[in-house]
């Protein structure tokens, strides 16, 4: 099996240009908005690892995002841990939850998989409603951002921004490496023809479980970062609305593409900010985007751009 | 006062009755989901939103047209069925050749739209809907006090569920429906209009949800959120029961309602999560669901 090179020579300038954009953009655009976009972009990229590359639709990713946010916030505020340790705790919790939920959910396929993940995430939501640690409707407020490695003061917005950017870039490169590895090839084989992958001797459930745990871990990382950026972890982060939003971001940006989910995340966050405060229109517009995407643009924004990107040799 | 296991019988039977009523709604909704899934291969995420719409149509009919509970019981399912037929004809019918997941995503989007529109129009707080005067009051049965309306909901839902079961399992039309679920191409070749059947099945499925909504209106308040709270529990019910059998859906619905009611008596903290716990146990023991076949 021959694999494409990790980054082709024609992709390099494109990637460097994107990185450069990431570095200079906070001087032109409100950095908190950018950080929100990056956190949700990472969340959507993690979700996309499952939907885009294994063909599994999880409707419960808010559980990993939200509970990781809660534990990070709790560790930073109540236990006074440094941000990197607080994030590590959140990610560890999301990974553990991912292992349990994944182990249960991969017993069924397709639509049942989606319903099981949704139901288990709702279980996580009800636990969050009752647990004293989460402070119910108030959430954990005023989470200190702290000093990264004891050196960098994250209370400074720009420092926080570059930290979020660094984590985002490193995570996306890692996820890109995963889907382009032999492991990733097996995942795609499972997505395209599961019985054939089984007959070739692959232990399909093990591959699915590993992909699920990875996806949950990165969703947790996104949630942890988000709780530090906004200094808040709340019930909204574990609710089914959040699970739906990450599906929307991925679908809008382009399922199974590397950058699509991030593009979708920025679009959804922009829509939220634009329509915030005028009643229920955010929900209605999100619903309309779902319907339009499913009926007309099943390949998402990146899919619309794909021919152009392909001509330039940026995508394979 | 009589007690059983230290629990006053009044509280025990009261919660069991409430559980049975919840179970009636679970049964009616999961029955509709199973019917729709059988023929359309779509899990109808907007089922909860259409149940809410049924309740709202009843409330709107009362407040703006002066139509009471009994006419609403006819009007609301008709209005919702019509909305469902429009949804099926304009949108869902384009998805039958695609992966099942697209149907889930589309109907999720529709649920957001419907819920959002009602929230925009009527706010998030609940609207009261009073019990019809014919069914007000209650009977003292000695061991418990039975509000007549609650008894009526249990009886009405049982009649509807069993009627649907009879129509599908014992009539000629039902035989066509079951045949079309097994092999639509062949049934079409025998000269039965399968596309019309699919449209009507969707309409009937959501009409059942709407009737459940009207029945629920006097018990719970009429609020835009009532559907999304319910649908996720109903999904868990569907996973537990499996969608293979009509009677299975009905039994699972009532059973889980009772389990929830019992939990409320003995360990109230777990009442909102017990159905999800049962789902976990069923997944471990019998992943295909209690009445399910295959994956």
List strands and helices in order, with pairings.
The complex is a heterodimer of chains A (316) and B (295).
Chain A: H1 11-24, H2 31-53, H3 62-77, H4 83-105, H5 110-130, E1 140-141, E2 147-148, E3 152-153, H6 157-179, H7 182-192, H8 194-199, H9 204-229, E4 232-233, H10 240-253, H11 260-275, H12 281-295, H13 300-311
Antiparallel strand pairs in A: 1-4, 2-3
Helix pairs in contact in A: 2-6, 2-9, 2-10, 2-11, 3-4, 3-5, 3-9, 4-5, 4-9, 7-9, 10-11, 10-12, 10-13, 11-12
Chain B: E1 3-4, E2 7-8, H1 9-40, H2 47-65, H3 69-90, H4 100-122, E3 138-140, E4 145-147, H5 148-170, H6 172-182, H7 184-189, H8 194-216, H9 226-241, H10 246-266, H11 274-285
Antiparallel strand pairs in B: 1-2, 3-4
Helix pairs in contact in B: 1-5, 1-8, 1-9, 1-10, 2-3, 2-4, 2-8, 2-9, 3-8, 5-6, 9-10, 9-11
Distance between the termini of chain A: 17 Å
Low-confidence stretches of chain A: none
Global shape of chain A: globular
Q: Would you tell me the overall average pLDDT of chain A?
A: 88
Task: Give structural notes.
The complex is a heterodimer of chains A (316) and B (295). Chain A contains 13 helices and four strands. Chain A has a two-stranded antiparallel sheet. A two-stranded antiparallel sheet of chain A has the order 2-3. In chain A, helix 2 (31-53) crosses helix 10 (240-253), helix 2 packs across helix 11 (260-275) and helix 3 (62-77) runs parallel beside helix 5. In chain A, strand 2 and strand 3 form a beta hairpin. Chain A has helices spanning 11-24, 31-53, 62-77, 83-105, 110-130, 157-179, 182-192, 194-199, 204-229, 240-253, 260-275, 281-295, 300-311; strands at 140-141, 147-148, 152-153, 232-233. The longest helix of chain A is centred in the C-terminal third of the chain and has 26 residues, at 204-229. With 316 residues, chain A is mainly α. In chain B, helix 2 (47-65) packs across helix 8, helix 2 (47-65) packs antiparallel against helix 9 and helix 9 (226-241) packs parallel to helix 11. The termini of chain B are far apart. The model of chain B has no long low-confidence stretch (mean pLDDT 88).
């Amino acid at each position: 099996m021959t694999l494409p090179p990790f980054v082709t020579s024609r992709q390099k300038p494109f990637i460097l240009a994107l990185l450069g954009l990431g570095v200079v953009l906070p001087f032109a655009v409100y950095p908190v908005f950018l950080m929100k976009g990056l956190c949700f972009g990472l969340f959507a990229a993690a979700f996309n690892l499952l939907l885009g590359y294994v063909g599994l639709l999880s409707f419960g990713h808010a559980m990993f995002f939200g509970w990781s946010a809660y534990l990070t916030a709790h560790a930073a505020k109540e236990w006074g841990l440094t941000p990197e340790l607080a994030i590590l705790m959140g990610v560890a919790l999301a990974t553990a939850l991912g292992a349990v939920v994944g182990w249960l959910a991969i017993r069924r396929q397709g639509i049942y998989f989606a319903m099981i993940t949704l139901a288990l995430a709702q279980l996580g939501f009800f636990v969050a409603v009752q647990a004293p640690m989460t402070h119910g409707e108030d959430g954990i407020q005023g989470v200190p951002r702290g000093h990264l490695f004891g050196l960098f003061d994250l209370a400074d917005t720009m420092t926080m921004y570059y930290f979020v950017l660094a984590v985002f870039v490193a995570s996306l490169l890692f996820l890109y490496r995963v889907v382009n590895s032999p492991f990733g090839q097996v995942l795609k084989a499972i997505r395209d023809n599961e019985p054939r992958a089984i007959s070739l001797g692959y232990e399909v459930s093990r591959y699915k479980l590993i992909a699920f745990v990875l996806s949950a871990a990165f969703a947790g990382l996104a949630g942890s970062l988000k709780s530090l950026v906004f200094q808040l972890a709340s019930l909204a982060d574990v609710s089914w609305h959040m699970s739906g939003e990450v599906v929307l971001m991925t679908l809008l940006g382009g399922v199974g593409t590397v950058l699509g989910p991030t593009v979708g995340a920025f679009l959804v966050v922009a829509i939220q900010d634009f329509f915030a405060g005028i009643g229920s229109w955010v929900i209605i517009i999100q619903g309309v985007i779902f319907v339009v995407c499913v009926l007309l643009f099943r390949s998402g924004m990146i899919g619309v751009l794909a021919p152009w990107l392909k001509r330039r040799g940026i995508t394979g | 006062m009589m007690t059983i296991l230290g629990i006053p019988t009044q509280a025990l039977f009261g919660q069991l009755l409430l559980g049975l009523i919840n179970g009636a709604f679970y049964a009616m909704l999961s029955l509709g989901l199973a019917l729709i899934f059988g023929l359309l291969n779509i899990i109808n995420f907007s089922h909860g939103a259409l149940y809410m719409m049924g309740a709202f149509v009843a409330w709107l009919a009362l407040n703006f047209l002066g139509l009471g509970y009994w006419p609403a019981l006819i009007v609301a399912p008709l209005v919702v069925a019509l909305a469902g037929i429009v949804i099926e004809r304009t949108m869902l019918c384009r998805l039958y050749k695609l992966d099942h997941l697209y149907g889930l995503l589309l109907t999720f989007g529709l649920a957001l739209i419907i819920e959002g529109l009602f929230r925009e129009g009527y706010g998030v707080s609940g609207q009261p809907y009073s019990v019809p005067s014919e069914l007000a009051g209650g009977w003292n049965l000695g061991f418990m006090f039975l509000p007549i309306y609650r008894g009526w909901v249990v009886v009405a839902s049982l009649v509807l569920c069993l009627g649907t079961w009879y129509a599908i399992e014992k009539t000629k039309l039902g035989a066509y429906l079951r045949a079309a679920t097994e092999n639509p191409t062949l049934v079409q070749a025998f000269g039965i209009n399968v596309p019309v059947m699919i449209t009507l099945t969707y309409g009937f499925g959501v009409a059942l949800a709407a009737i459940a909504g009207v029945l629920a209106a006097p018990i719970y308040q009429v609020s835009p959120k009532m559907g999304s709270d319910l649908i996720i529990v109903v999904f868990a019910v569907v996973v537990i029961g499996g969608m293979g059998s009509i009677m299975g859906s009905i039994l699972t619905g009532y059973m889980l309602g009772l389990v929830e009611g019992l939990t409320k008596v003995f360990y109230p903290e777990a009442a909102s999560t017990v159905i999800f716990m049962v789902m976990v146990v069923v997944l471990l023991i019998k992943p295909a669901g209690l009445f399910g076949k295959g994956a």
